[in-house]
Amino acid sequence: MTIASLKIGLSAAFALGLACLPVHAQNFNVGRSLIKGNAVQYLYPEQVTVAAGKPSAVTLHFRIAPGLHINSHTPSEDYLIPTVFSIPDGAGARLDKATYPSGTDITLPIDPKTKLSVYTGDFTIEARIVAVAGNHLVEAKLHYQACDNNECMPPKTIPVAIDVIGK
Amino acid sequence: MKRNTLVLTVVLFLLATFAWAGWANWKYRQQAAERMLASAAKGELVPDPAGGMAQYNSPLKGKPAPAFALEDLSGKKVTLASYKGKAVLINFWATWCGPCKLETPWLVELRNKYAGQGFEILGVSTEGEDLKKDDKAGWDKDRAAIGKFVEQMKVPYPMLVGGDSISQDYGGLDAMPTSFFVDRKGNVVAAQMGLTSQSDIESNIKKALEN
Q1: Which of B36, B49, B63, B211 shows the greatest Cβ crowding within 10 Å of its Cβ?
Q2: Is A137 within a domain?
């Protein structure tokens, strides 16, 4: 009877543990589908673990909607709005340095004389982050300005939510 | 037997506590992420499923153009009402908008062509969320950039600033350039979003002059 009780108890505990796994394993993939009208979507990572107090490299992945382009971090004309990643003060983590990809030079059919330095499709930003010890939900931001071949959308800032664990 | 039951109960209780803590933590992070995403502005431009330029069907068509009073580059107040009796093209543009700058020579030519028939263009500069209301240095820089462009392009029509303050009245301005063609009675007869062609713009000017 003792062994039977133990078996039942262990089975129940195992079943309970299995039932909990999806809760822990599931990424909170909230809102990862492209919100209608947003030209750029943050893909991943949603969570990173870094050494507390030391700069750690994190690769941030973004996707630009098909048919659109955004100015690179170093656009070809000074009136164009660059793409910039930032972390606000007081987040528990700060941005030590961001390294942006080189833009692709394109010309538009409507204006073949002007070269634009842009990002299209998927791109990454290498962010060097310094976090204090602890668990921080960092509300970083990506600022950009998108166009297609015929029109431009107003500059936009999207949230980049990253769970940063400083160990 | 009693001890085994007690141990089992304690173990199950601890497991349940850990499971609840994990669930609560996950739920908290999910809600925090949802709040952040909800605070992001949601656009309304819908790409053309056929892959072409997004179509703009303005709800203002057939209705009176919303009234406004904006400053020109010299600081003088300009109202839409003061142009009643004329056909007007209200052209929303931005200094960072390449297509907007491309269509400006067409607008200059068409304005000069039809001015004698009672037609005018009002250029309305709209910078978006980048320029905050209290950013005086930013606004001064913006006006200087507009002034330089006006001089380069020999723009003969009024250039107004602060278009963001009326953008909601005109449907939110999801993209630029966006133009509204207003007839002599003050009603919107046509609207365009994006760079089209000089002939498209001219045909809408004629519509505004006809009424």
Answers
A1: B36
A2: yes
